[in-house]
Amino acid sequence: MSPLPPPSGGGELGEIPYLRPHPGAALFEARAARFAALAAGHSLGEFLEFCGRLAAAQAAAATSLDVPEGAGERPAGRPLDPAAGPGDGWLGALSAIAGELEDAPMPAAARDGLGRVAGLKRPELAALARALLSFDFAGLDLAAAPFAAAALQVEFAVRAARIPPASVARSQRGCPLCGSPPVAAVVLGDDKLRYLACALCGSQWHLTRITCSHCGSNAGISYLALEGDPGGVKAETCDGCRRYLKVLYLEHRPASEPEADDTATLALDELVAEQGYARAGVNLLLLP
């Protein structure tokens, strides 16, 4: 695997920030609003509305989450280390999310999954967290696991928001804070810089455009889009590793939120899969 090329700046761009400022709890507020907007008239409207309610519950949990300063942070390497496991904060977040969703409408399968995850004992929850943080989804209860993943997102996002961007080293692969894969990428509307968005902690880090996020190759990169799309979302495909990642163009889709817009564009995943490409990233709402 070739190392990521250094950011190129200078001229009018100046120095390119490697990390964008993390919004903390506001990440989930923006996600909830975006899901609500995308649900209107969408063929997956009921599911997107549920995802929006889940994101709103995450926002409430993140606002009240008590994570001790420095909990789980490492002095060297990645500031957040999922391999070390989460702190106890995620259990509080899970309880808060379950409480927020107690009377919320949701699909029957999701309701059953929420009940099952809420009834797990602490050792079972610890095992579930380990599997999710290692992105090992084999054998998971796919209706229950997204609620645990949502709670883990809350803890890691709150912790990530406390870390000064200037203290974070560049990563050759995965999120520079926690090592997780991206869910999607965004291309900013002003300077056209491309940032990958972490599937777990929500951090966004710079990656030069026309570069595969999975293998780092600059060759064999192409783009697929749905017919009739005005250019707001494309799948960046790599012929070297046969992986793809969606790219959201804020110039055409200014309200985009990576997890929400990735979830709402499943038709593009079907198109790309037909061409023989596999996802390079992960969406914790859409476990395989």
Second CATH tier, the architecture of the largest domain: Alpha-Beta Complex
Largest sheet: 7 strands, mixed
Characterize the overall form: globular
Low-confidence stretches: 1-11, 71-75
Number of domains: 2
Rg, alpha carbons: 18 Å
Give the N-to-C terminal Cα separation: 26 Å
* The CATH H-level homologous superfamily of the largest domain: FdhE-like domain
**What is the typical, i.e. mean, pLDDT?**
90
> From N to C, what is the helix and strand string?
HHHHHHEEEEEEHHE
Q: Under CATH, the topology of the largest domain is which?
A: FdhE-like fold
Multimerization state: single chain
Helical stretch count?
8
Residue share in helix: 25-40%
Portion in strands: 5-15%
- Which structural class matches the secondary elements? alpha/beta
Number of distinct beta strands: 7
Q: What is the CATH first-level class name of the largest domain?
A: Alpha Beta
